[in-house]
């Protein structure tokens, strides 16, 4: 009986969201063929580390990793939450580890207070600034807002890290159904430029450049320079700019650019600003990188039709939609947002929520 | 003359009197407000308060009702009561009332149409506890039958308690057998007492019906009519559990296992079974696990929606106020003998009363009879009929289909069938298909072919269901021979491609309900890109050539499409194409910009290459690839202005933007002033461009909105303020509206994919690997329920519940004794551990449940969402005496581990005692153990407290401890510790439906019970036996105080020990001689005493005499009374005997088991 119920996948891609779906649905997941053709086969250190982190915030989880490390069987336990401290390896930034935790934490038994250390910003994963200003607000329409907080205690740039972040997440009984089809129009742009262990002038240069690009679109533009000094600035030098655009209906779009060795801050600012404009141009009510998060919460909503307007689905989204069907049996109805307008790539995603109730929550 | 009855009074119909009367009546009409106006301020205040209170009691927590309004499932009406109370009679009467048909034997659910928007499913619940539990979980309305001549019985109270813990449905009491009470006064008194008892159980004012005698095997028509009126107007409030789970009361049951398999395994193989019924609760989705109480968790093989066997009246009869007589005849009861047809598990029986011949056509026939007659009419066999048939593939085809060789027969037949189905279902769809045929070939590409494949497979899956729907709810078993792809050579593949007319679901997004003709099923076809024209032209060509220029041809075909802009059908791309996400997304890119065609084309044809090869580059990243920020277009003003409309400064592009707040627009305008002037101009220009025609209407709309807002705020600020309750209700209504609107117009399959099967639909669920006993021991009188499980409920874990022993259950419950728990859909036996919260420090195990108090219990079992109610039983067999519900409670928490502890005391004895230090041994076994307990508090029996310090080298496990005082060598030292315990992982589902005797399920027994049943003796541990305790008497040495000290002590503290006097005293030494007077006096006293003694003795004798006489008299009277009593008893017993005899006759040999209530 149990074997029939296992979800089976192969390949190392989409590792984290499969684990998350397994924890939420309670179905065991078997992933094999993890880099089996590679010169260096098996799980990477960061993947093992993310498993370790998930084991810390759950109770009763059984993880069996095959002898060669190319297969893994996860029997999910109960998401417990509580006070957890975790150290990330230097191969990935904190965003990689925090993303699955953000998806799981609202459904834990106790509110989560996670202290996580490592690299705060790099060019592969969402930086902690984006997580704080974009990811967490994406949870707000689902009724997860009171006590949801991300505190950046220390920053740590890429090679050596040394940053520290506190993530606090409340527990919900059931998430609200989303009905978000009006993208509105961009009303303000905010940004954070930070520079650690380099000249503080650099962040001002980024701000000036970015302003020169964005000011023509909107006057409500506040870019701040976030300075961390001494102990709090980590072990390596680096700087980055993250931008957020908010629409009249609360839709968020974000972009980010990180310093490269030998580069100039102006290039970083240009990259961030232009990519923000590109994202805005793509449209939708939800940022591209957060499609998965929003879709997951829609699946977990009450047994009503939830709707959300998004830009074109990304690769991750496509695979996620397929995986969701395996785990929850939920299929989305995807139709063009403006059928009469051939230039519009935006889609309306609608699904019937599964009526997921946080069974882990303690009563009384 | 006098005994002639008086003429009844007739009120005047016309004339002055009638007018006068009417006038009076008119006056009374309406509410005279003045009459009820409060006279004093205090009274007004009180009245206001009372009204406010009544308003609040009216409010309930707003709950969403998941039952659809337009086609709701039938209301499940359960008839519950002990045997012999008249349940079957009531069901028969009610069915007769609704359908004008008399059913001889009622088995299983009976569905009837009771009104224009209401159907009822009647189900009789037998007297088995398992059935009562299951019925209690699904019934919407319970008719609780009570024997008026007997009173309440234990089962009724048990049933009410079950209802209480699983969500209370509506309950109507029905008192029967009232005709057995002869005296009017007794009848009245009985009714009153029973009503009072009923009210305390349900609520004050609960409805109770009285049914008097039985006429023609039914209850009197007018009484049944009253009852049915009540049923038809009853309103239901959604119950939380049922509003979150789908469920179905099975009204038909069939075994689909191949006969041969059953025969070879002698009936012991696992079966494939279909169950039918109306869905209730929430939507049942594909892939949902189900649980059948009494069997176990089962996996669903397929679900299909069938035609409604008992449909609600449709719009054509909607105009009438009442239900038409024709509709009243509908009854759906497959397990009973409606119309002389009984659908059994594997056969259909036609019941023919008397004898009949085909000849007499004039007489009306029942359904079954007609069926048999029609069978006789058949003149030729099926294949002859097929051969002669003139079935055309499409409505427009001129040639009919021919039955050719056996190899093509199967395929053709299938196609035919598809087509017939289409035609039958919707004519429009057939037309669609024709269009598709005409469009053949010019709009097709790779991805769509793949869709076709997938959809074809879907079609295959669907087929049995759609054929079943044709048959009006009955499956037509078909043996389909499928042409294997290998057999039909690849040359034929071309033909197949030509046949495939693909609907361009991708082209037109609104039309995704098209059907496709069958394509070849071969897996290898999935990645062969085919174009119909090519395939057709190369029909006869050899395979290698066909394959050689495949890619280029496909590419050229693709190129021709690139010019046109087309939109992808994401649903089919994601859910039914085998493409990888990369291909799906990049395909989008190639379709959008024609520059990188070649690259994407190449990619399209490398499907077979394993994706893992280039894994080095593939990072599992959250950030997507950076947008092209370097390109020149970012310098291009025109490009930058092209998406200006997405900002609030960009001016209004459409009317809808006007709605979202004028303040934002105002804000934008205001801030525009601060910005560069050029921006303002550009924005202004845009606004101007937006069209002067639209501007006027937009302005008007804006004005209108403003005016409305002002009116609302100015006229009545109260009306715009909605209270929380109304707000919530409004929200729910809106969401329901949205749910309805979102899937309107979507075809049946997509709907099933997105939202599953709606409650109210009649479905057929195919179940795999069902234990054969369910089929072998099937009994339609025991209800089968299919309950859907939420994803979280499939798991197992440790469930913590709050539990309270039922006060009618005599004994306390013991930890680790098995308990049968009914929770969610399931009934299972498990082993709980009871515990109590000990000052919020620890969870402490309890050996027994406390009296009159809640406690916690933790057990291993299937997870239920917190707040689910449950009830528990020690023994669910019918043979149990007394009240069977042992406890009730609610789920609190789900976890994988527990922190329940029990107290353990480790004891040791001093080995050596110093001043305040002692060496203690025999408490631990090794130094390591001691190390674990360093610093732990210890205590002696006499109450001296101390602490573990450090292990000693020798002997093992000994340690040094310090105390607050010197301990004695004879003291026992103990350490209080807590030992954590885990519940045993025991879960045993109650599989009562699998038994032949369904009431006799017995789970794990207690050890004592097993010993008793097996006749075994309890093994006696010799250490546990009680022996006489022989303690050596403790000798204490006398207290010696040194002389010096004694001397120094004050007198009060000095020991005052006096030796006993061993010499005789002066008086003891002397003899006494009396004087003569003294002697006399002594003698006199003696005499007086003797006299007195004698007197007393005589008086006693006399009294005894009197008493014995009295006793005799009393005994005589007693004897007389006893005789009389005996006579009376004899009389009573004779009457009672007669009554039971009558009852037995009435029940016709049914065994009646009655257990009298204790209370």
TrEMBL record, chain A:
It is found in: Nucleus, Nucleolus. GO terms for cellular component: nucleolus. GO terms for molecular function: RNA endonuclease activity. The keyword Nucleus applies. It comes from the Eukaryota. Keywords: Nucleus, Ribosome biogenesis. Signal peptide: none annotated. GO terms for biological process: endonucleolytic cleavage of tricistronic rRNA transcript (SSU-rRNA, 5.8S rRNA, LSU-rRNA). Transmembrane segments: none annotated. Residues 8-334 form the RNA 3'-terminal phosphate cyclase domain. PROSITE patterns: RTC. Its main location: nucleus. Pfam families: RTC, RTC_insert. Residues 181-280 form the RNA 3'-terminal phosphate cyclase insert domain. The keyword Nucleus applies. InterPro entries: RNA3'-term_phos_cycl_insert (IPR013791), RNA3'_phos_cyclase_dom (IPR023797), RNA3'_phos_cyclase_dom_sf (IPR037136), RNA3'_term_phos_cyc (IPR000228), RNA3'_term_phos_cyc_type_2 (IPR016443), RNA3'_term_phos_cycl-like_CS (IPR020719), RNA3'P_cycl/enolpyr_Trfase_a/b (IPR013792), RPTC_insert (IPR036553). CDD domains: RNA_Cyclase_Class_I (cd00875). Belongs to the RNA 3'-terminal cyclase family. Type 2 subfamily. This is 18S rRNA biogenesis protein.
Automatic annotation (TrEMBL), chain B:
Residues 19-32, 42-58, 620-633, 1094-1107, 1115-1133, 1142-1151 have a biased composition (Basic and acidic residues). Keywords: ATP-binding, GTP-binding, Hydrolase, Nucleotide-binding, Nucleus, Phosphoprotein, Ribosome biogenesis. The keyword Ribosomal protein does not apply. It comes from the Eukaryota. GO terms for molecular function: ATP binding; GTP binding; GTPase activity; U3 snoRNA binding. The keyword RNA-binding does not apply. CDD domains: BMS1. GO terms for biological process: endonucleolytic cleavage of tricistronic rRNA transcript (SSU-rRNA, 5.8S rRNA, LSU-rRNA); maturation of SSU-rRNA from tricistronic rRNA transcript (SSU-rRNA, 5.8S rRNA, LSU-rRNA). Residues 1-60, 399-547, 579-634, 650-670, 1094-1159 are annotated as: Disordered. Residues 1-10 have a biased composition (Basic residues). Residues 410-459, 498-512, 521-541, 659-670 have a biased composition (Acidic residues). Belongs to the TRAFAC class translation factor GTPase superfamily. Bms1-like GTPase family. BMS1 subfamily. PANTHER family: RIBOSOME BIOGENESIS PROTEIN (PTHR12858), RIBOSOME BIOGENESIS PROTEIN BMS1 HOMOLOG (PTHR12858:SF2). This is GTP binding protein. It comes from Schizopora paradoxa. The lineage of its organism: Eukaryota, Fungi, Dikarya, Basidiomycota, Agaricomycotina.
